Amino acid sequence: MNKKLQRIRKEIDVLDIEIMQLIRARKSFAKDLVFCKYSNKILLRDLGREKEILKKRDKEAKRLDLNPRSIEAIWTILIKDLLQEQRKIVKRKKTISRENFPTR
Asked: Which helix (H) or strand (E) holds 23?
């Protein structure tokens, strides 16, 4: 295989791993989000916040010359994944307290 092609593919693989690490970091906020939402009597799913996030990502996608539809699809998946993680946390915990959900 062409050496340049191999190098480019290797660089893409490195970026893919960095993206996954960032997704993991984003997901690590799930426990804190559950505690904050519970403490403030906010539902786990906030459609207004979701719309706000998607609107901001759309604007940033355009600024970065990325396809806004693709970015919206990616962020919709990320939002659903984080919400699913929050729901898992709530299911595992019968009662929510500061001890169960320490803040950062």
From this structure: helix 3-27
Q: Coil, strand, or helix at residue 12?
A: helix
Per-residue pLDDT at 71 exceeds 90: yes
Longest CA pairwise span in the chain (Å): 58
| 39-60: pLDDT as tens digits | 888 899 999 999 999 999 999 9
Share the mean pLDDT of the chain: 89
CA 89/CA 99 separation, integer angstroms: 14
- 59 with 45: CB under 8 angstroms? no
Q: What are phi and psi of 45, to 5 degrees?
A: -100, 125
The band of 96, judged by pLDDT with boundaries at 50, 70 and 90, is low
Dist CA 98 CA 20 (whole Å)? 29
> In terms of Cα–Cα distance, which of 41, 35, 52 is closest to 95?
35
CB 43 within 8 A of CB 37: yes
